[in-house]
Amino acid sequence: MDTLELKSIDQAFQQTEEVVVPQYVEFIVNGKQLSQLINQHFKLAKPVFSKFTSTLGTMELTNFDRLKIHQLLTHPVKEKDVEKLFPKKHFEQEPILEELELDKILLYCCAECADYRCSGCFVKVTKSPKTFIWTLDAPLFSDKDKEDNSNELKFEFEQEAYHKAFKTYLLTLQVE
Ligand SMILES: [Zn+2]
Description:
The protein is of the alpha+beta class. It has helices spanning about 35-40, 65-70, 80-85, 95-100, 160-175; strands at about 5-10, 25-30, 30-35, 50-55, 105-110, 120-125, 130-135, 155-160.
């Protein structure tokens, strides 16, 4: 069984060519950064963080994190949930609702625009009786890239531990 943790990364003081966004929350799978596992598995010429940032811990508004966690736990998200997190008065809901209709979840987004239509690294999450299964395709670096699921990267997490990883993270959001 694979393991999942969430870890806050602060690279503000590191000088690497990859860093676009100094602070984010990384998915740690089997003790390794998921972005690096993706770089290796798909033999990427440009690493994930040359273009993307994590969809967790990047946005100033933590409601984006809450929505993402709903999705990753495969909780159905209805329009009224979106209204609660992102009231029409202040947000353009259409792109959020469109993204929710995809059969996959954006894990790493464009560090400049965060729009799933620009580019992204997506995961499909399926729930089995005892586990959550993640299936990742190669990242789409631009809207011209075609989805290719010939070489997908798969992980399987035990349900209780998976829930715990996200619940622990949600608690850190509530402290703020
Ligand atoms: Zn973009």
